[in-house]
Amino acid sequence: MSELITKRYEFVYLFDVENGNPNGDPDAGNMPRIDAETSHGIVTDVCLKRKVRNCVDIIQGNKKGYEKGYQIYVREKGILTNEQKKSYIALEEKGIKNPSIEQAQSWMCMNFFDVRTFGAVMSLKEFNCGQVRGPVQFNFARSIDPVTPVELSITRMAVATQKEADAQKGDNRTMGKKNIIHYGLYRSEGYISAHLAEKTGFTEKDLELLWDSLINMWDHDHSAARGKMNARKLFVFEHEGKLGNAPAHKLFDLVDVKQKDLNGIPARAFKDYEVVIDKEKLPSGVNLLEKL
Known about the structure:
Blueprint: E1 9-20, E2 24-25, E3 31-32, E4 40-43, H1 45-61, H2 80-93, H3 101-111, H4 113-118, E5 119-122, E6 130-133, E7 136-138, E8 141-146, E9 150-156, H5 162-168, E10 174-192, H6 194-200, H7 204-216, E11 228-239, H8 248-252, E12 255-259, E13 273-277, E14 286-290
Antiparallel strand pairs: 1-10, 1-11, 2-3, 4-8, 5-6, 7-10, 8-10, 9-10, 11-14, 12-13
Helix pairs in contact: 1-7, 2-3
């Protein structure tokens, strides 16, 4: 069995979108999320975790049955009570009558990758499994430069029903909208706690699966709405031990991402940016790993 992680980590993750909507806001007609004061684009931590979950689910789904410990608790269209019920059934089959919340919670951490990674609120009325604080957390991703959401009109050359066709009098074109930004480079930062990993059972194998998912998840998430999205850089700061050797914000400040001089032309590709790491200021006891 893989060993628990024994070191603290922070990471900086860069990804971009071209002619797509990286994270629509349902309260704003599904327009790309932006900071209303600065017009910088935003992608929520919940969105990023969703992509990681989906990627892990795809990786496991390609095997002959899920590998033990790598089910996904918060699946799309899932029913959480049904997932939590599994813990009570499994424990009772082992002869544990009326399992405690702590026992059910431990079973959930052991069997669901996303529970022991991100944590979960599982304190439902039925099959209560309590709450778990996960060792892996993301900040909101934020675009390096301001972005401009654009609403495009699109045409569908068909209608859904005969009634619509009769109303159109033979012209079956219908109009719709598509919300995009032409280009945005986003930066997210994250944290991994070895102390919390001890409580949930987060292992070295889980850690490698997390890195693989961040690198590959956009390749399994293409859609007409999201356009062209790619992982661009993943910088990992590895500390010597659990407590760490430097504050996270000082490590994040070592990674500088800025637009090149384009003579006033807006950036439209990753090559329009420069990524600089001040390695000379890397604190003692911290190792920089470039995963991508």
